[in-house]
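Now for my pick.
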Amino acid sequence: MKTILMLTDFSENANHAAKTATKVLRSLNADILLYNTYYDHPILSAYSGGPWVVEGFVFQKAESIAKLSQLTLQLRHIIAGISKDGFEPKTDYQCGEGPLGRNTAVIIEENKAGLVVIGGSTNGSLNHLIFGSDTMDVIDHSFCPVLIIPPKAEMNQLKKVTLAIDFELADINAINYLTHLGKQLNFQLEIVHVSVLEEKDDPVKEKAILNHIHAIKQDNITYLEIRGKDVVKRLNRLCKDSGSDMLALVHYQDGFLPDLFDRSTTAAVLYNQHIPLMVLPSEMK
C-alpha cells in the first residue's frame, strides 16, 4: 500500500477519523494524503416564489488549503510521537472542486491509494457532507477499500475484524486483502457467511470459498455461519457479542451483498454502525 487517502470536510468527526486512522494504520508504512472537495460557486436557496438568493460559498479554495495545512501539521505531530522503525511517511494534502465521489476516483488513481478513510455520521442525519449520499458516492467510485470511522471509535487496538461474505467469487479478494492486512496489523479475522432464511446457496461457489479459506491455514482466521431475516441486525449483534473491532463488507453496484442488501439497507448499515466499517469493492484493483 503506497498511500492512504483521508477525506475531510473539516468537521470534528472527519478530523477525528483522520487522527484515529493515522494512529492505528501507522504500521502499514504508507504515505498519507488529505483531501477536501469544495464548491467554487454560490449555494442558492430553495425557490419559494421569489428570486434565487445567493447565501454564500462552501469551502472556497483558500479556506480549504488553510484548513488542510493545519490538519496536516496535526497528523505530522501524531506520527512524530509514535514513529519507531525509522520510517517517516509523507503527509501531504490536496483540494479540488466538484463531486466528491468522482474526485476521489481520480485522486486514488493518480496517487495509487490503497485505502480511503472517511468519518461516519455525527448525528441522526444522513445528509452530512461526508456521510449518506456522499459516502455512497465515494464507495461507488472507489476501487480500493473504504474505511468509515464513527464518531466515538478510537481504534486504539484492532484485535478482531469480522468479514461478512455471501459465497460470491469477489469474497476471495476480500479474504486475501484482510488476511494480508491482518498480518501487518496483527488482528484476528472472523469470516462470517450470511444466509437469509429459506434461501439456498450456490454449492459450487460455497465449495470454492470454503476451500480457499481452509487453504490459508492460519490460526488467527476463523469461520462461522449466521442465519436470519434481518441481516443488518444479525451482523451488528454478532460484532457486539464477539467483541469485534471492525466490520467488513463486500460492495457491489447494487448493494453490499447480492440478493441480501439493497441500497436502502446499505444506508441502514452505515447509519447504525457503531464500530468502524470497511467496505471492500467487488472489483478491487
User: Anything to note?
Assistant: Helices lie at 12-24, 61-82, 100-111, 133-141, 170-185, 203-216, 231-242, 263-272.
